[in-house]
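User: Please predict the structure of the protein below. I'd like the answer in structure-token form so I can feed it into my own downstream comparison script.

Assistant: Understood. Taking the following sequence of 174 residues as input:
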Amino acid sequence: MILTRQAIVSAVGRGDIVIEPFETERVSPNAYDWRLGEHLRACDAELDAAAPAEFTELTIPPDGLILRPRTLYLGVTYERTHSERYAQMINGDRSLGALGIWVHVSAPLGHMGHAIRWTLEIRVARPIRVYPYMTFGKIVFISGFGRQASYQQMGLKYTRTAGIDNSRLHEELN
């Protein structure tokens, strides 16, 4: 079950959901409008799933940065989210999709207990200028059924995500 606007605001008030920073006006009927952070990593080289990828670190200036097709960008959400009670699902914004920006298509689920600034996979169809702190998507909160387990307490490989986190698939393949 997806939480409604009032349920999200109430859960934040109780501490069942943490959104840092939190702005009530960013809560829509059943989601929170999250923003793009100010840092990106860019990769336009060939990738190998069995090896760490090399990226160029970028800071998005206040007047924006043009993203280019055929480049993989990893970004980060401005907001940090956490909930031991609710799972989280992050999506790009419909307005971005209409501009040819695909964001976070492959891994939208944040498990119960995941406390992160989300790493974002970003691809673009055409060159487009993006800005730091612009609305970039929506996050919904979902009630779980059954016995709950905290992602943070399970010691999995992405438990300490504080910023942009590259793929760690190579750790499993070596």
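That's the full token string. The longest strand covers residues 31-43.
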